[in-house]
Amino acid sequence: MSLNKALIKYLAFPAMERFKGNKIRQYLSYLKQTQFLPPDEIRRLQQKKLAVLLRHCLARVPAYQPFAYLLDQVEREPEGVLKQLPILTKQNFIENTNLYLAQGQKPENLILNRTGGSTGEPVRFYLDRATVEHYEAARWRGLSWWGIEIGDPSAMIWGSPLELSQNQQLLYYLKERYLKNRIIIPAYGMKPEGLAEYAKKINSLRPVYIYGYASALALFARLASESGIKLKPRLKGVVSTAETLHEDMRTAIESFFNCKAVNEYGARDGGIIAYECPCGGMHISAENLYLEIVDLKTKEPAETGKTGLVLVTDLNNFAMPRLRYQLGDLAALSPERCPCGVNLPLMGNIEGREDDVFVGRNGEFIHGHFFNHIARNLDGIRQFQLVQSAPRAVILKIVKGKNFAEQEVEFFKNKILEALGEVDITLEFVPAIPPSPSGKVQYAKRLFPLS
């Protein structure tokens, strides 16, 4: 065990627990036990927590008090009561934020958080410390399945220029490097000429795992591979988060880093929703949240295995609860059981964001990853971005690769027309596809509502 890890394990965490009341390790121990309960017991535990949360919301949260007439039904059928409440969209929450703050809660006593705003207006919200610690415990449980422990050194491909410039201070560096045992490689503005320096930092730290945005990890892997850069550490995993981990990204990451890519499905405004185990199962954090999948058009419950919109109800957030909160993601539930021994329910496909879905001229929905499948087989296209700006108009941005050929561009354009119908395609050749300020890259996006 390294000295830094020992200091975190035996000094930093005990000090936080004693003086700040930090309960991450306590919650982690609990989750490591409940994950092996029979599925029916996990479901009963989840329903019990849901009932407690519903009673609190109907009595003490202004946004939900109009539904107080449902209180008598909560004990008998908490899930039924939840489904009678309206779906909460991000826009509705933004417009009525104060109505979701529970009575007696003061913002100055809570933790302010916000989404990155990479696909629209950022969402600002408050959490209490217990909720944040439950998120962290769920993350460490998922990492534990890969032999990764609290205090293990890591490198993060993360952040934005704004975030990094505000935090280039000695205190920030000491906290990241010594209290969290990690270094941060900026995901924004990644260029081939800077990779050698990043690799040097990673090799110096010798991390146990690497953590970052899916697109940034895949781009790092591709650029470093093209440059002949090698990493020395033997990693237990590369953890992909914050974006959909598509198979071409997984292949690039695993090929370069020479270890498994681990899918973490979470959101700043949703917590750790699911984690991939070594058997490939995406286990839902059922003790911490109630997950629903609803039809894209009707908003009614989707059949198990069918893709729909993800709704999350955080079972630990009593300070500013959001019931049936629509993240904007598309995913499915799985009826399968995982052979790994963990009895948490499973997610099926996690297909990306709702605004990754394009609308064809015939009214059909086409997921943006369809275009990823085409582009990844075109050697002359290093990166692309397809934006549907209107029902009959798309913008195709292309970064030329080493073997660029005009024929491939025409082939790509024809495939777009086959999928969407006769739309106007504006072609732009660009030097790079810049990430959003949060550091994420959205390769396909729609700029108008589905309905």
Descriptors for this entry?
451 residues; 35% helix; 11-stranded mixed β-sheet; alpha/beta
Task: Assign a percent range to the helix content.
Answer: 25-40%
From the N-terminal CA to the C-terminal CA, the straight-line distance is 56 Å
- The SS-based structural class is alpha/beta
Name the poorly predicted regions. Answer: 160-167
The backbone outline, from C-alpha atoms, is: globular
Strand adjacency order, main sheet: 4-3-5-6-7-8-9-13-12-11-10
Major β-sheet profile: 11 strands, mixed
Radius of gyration: 23 Å
Q: What is the subunit arrangement here?
A: single chain
Q: What is the average per-residue confidence, as pLDDT, rounded to a whole number? A: 88
Number of H- or I-type helical stretches? 14
Q: What fraction of residues sit in β-strands?
A: 15-25%
What is the number of E strands? 19
What does this structure look like?
It contains 14 helices and 19 strands. It has helices at 3-19, 24-34, 39-60, 71-74, 78-84, 90-95, 129-144, 161-166, 170-179, 192-205, 214-226, 247-257, 369-375, 406-420, and strands at 111-114, 124-127, 154-158, 182-186, 209-213, 237-241, 261-267, 271-276, 282-284, 289-294, 308-314, 325-334, 346-353, 357-359, 365-367, 381-390, 393-400, 424-429, 444-446. The chain has an eleven-stranded mixed sheet with strand order 4-3-5-6-7-8-9-13-12-11-10, with helices on both faces. A hairpin with a 5-residue loop joins strand 14 and strand 15 (365-367). It starts with a helix and ends in a 5-residue tail after the last strand. Mean pLDDT is 88; it is low at 160-167.
